[in-house]
Predict the structure.
Amino acid sequence: MSGKGQPKTAKYIFVTGGVTSSLGKGIVASSLAKLLQARGLSVTIQKFDPYINIDPGTLNPYEHGECYVTNDGAETDLDLGHYERFLGVPTSQANNITTGRVYNNVITKERRGDYLGKTVQVIPHITDEIKRNILLLGETGLYDIVITEIGGCVGDIESLPFIEAARQLKWDLGEKNTLFIHLTLVPYLASAGELKTKPTQHSVRALSELGVQPDIIVCRTEHPIPIEMRRKIALFCNVSPNDVIESIDAETIYDVPLLMRKEKLDQRALYKLDIYNDKDADLESWKNFLGKLKNPTEQITVGLVGKYVELKDSYKSIAEGLIHAGAVNETKVNVKWISSENLVDAGYEKRLEELDGILVAPGFGERGIEGKINAVRFARENKIPFFGICLGMQCAVIEYARNVLKLEDAHSFEMNPETTNPVIDLMEEQKSVTNKGGTMRLGAYACKLEKGSLAHSIYGKLNIQERHRHRFEFNNAYLEQFKTAGMIPTGINPESGLVEVVEIKDHPFFIGVQFHPEYKSNVANPAPLFVHFVKAVLKNAIPLMKGAK
């Protein structure tokens, strides 16, 4: 694509959506990226979100699903999780930009006097800042193709500057260097017994009115789209019938790359970008993963205890981590979503009795905390495999302090600043910070594991790096008391001395981690903690199935 010794010059694919949100732009973008990667091209994906928050870090998970965290500590949209799970390539701060960040940058420049007295406007100043961010990754020389997913729906006021910036880039970059893919819905009307193309026509017209003619139209549908209907869409939307791609509902999101290959999405994209590539997409390991995922030999039930369980996307990476781990173990992991608020009252044990394993999820704030602590106690006392992540690990520490160390009012300073036993506390340097955005330990940090520990056997090495997203820490003033009583800190941050991993011996599997292993789990490299948790649950559940204790 570029001369020897020359840095790569990237080409740009833009993915927009219409008709309705949540059609799966992220999955389509990830699937196309996977296919191009499997043909030997280097690809990255970035997400441009039209909301005014600087990042999703302060958003309630009910608003926007989980907040994903990258190695460099960026709090991002959950679609970046899809990108990493599909591609196995780390993303960064540069892969997720919001309207808030764009305006923040422009206003900062204006205050600094960079615009020399000019009137600062949406065009050209905001659009120029968007274009600068779109091109950042492409200018590194690392990528053949940069895919940019534009959040929201065509026609929304807030996404207009992004569409305009992409329109301008088409002309800035010249012929064959950009490609526009538009994702729409072809709904099925049960009363009429047929699929309808009108929403797609309207959506493409709305995009065309903004000066962007899509090159490829991907149609989300519940039923196969007949060839005559593809021709009709092509005719009304100014594309060839080959550029109308069907994206039918799939059994699992991991089917989508194979469905897109069947529809020749990667071939059409390469042809339109004038990239010669005669390599077939090598998806053998992907197919192996799918084969195991779809043909499990065992099944287990894991309780996921959290406070945002009504919206499954709140724990997207954890759910996917369990899917990856299940496939490795050829085991179907049935996830039972349990609201921690339902485990507070007497008799809560009834809700946990049928579970083979218990995972206590991350979270912030006091709501549902006692339910999480009860879930830990149940798992510990009944020898049920337990895995605590972030706040889940902190709950394990609080539970142990109260019921084993007999520190009855033990708590986290976050939930109860009055406690005389703050076994979870703020780091000293955080105590004076009041700004919620950016007061946390974020991104990848080193952790040294204790030789011979459960964590060591899981990772197979002593030095690991995992991603963090939290504000409160294990209080080292209580370290010796916990050790003596049998809760062992087996993972320590080598620089700060902060506890990262706790475990209990004489238990089938009991581990709590301060970091978020789910963020790094992907199809090619499932997170070791998830793989071993599922393995332990399976091992523990099989004797129970046979009626033996």
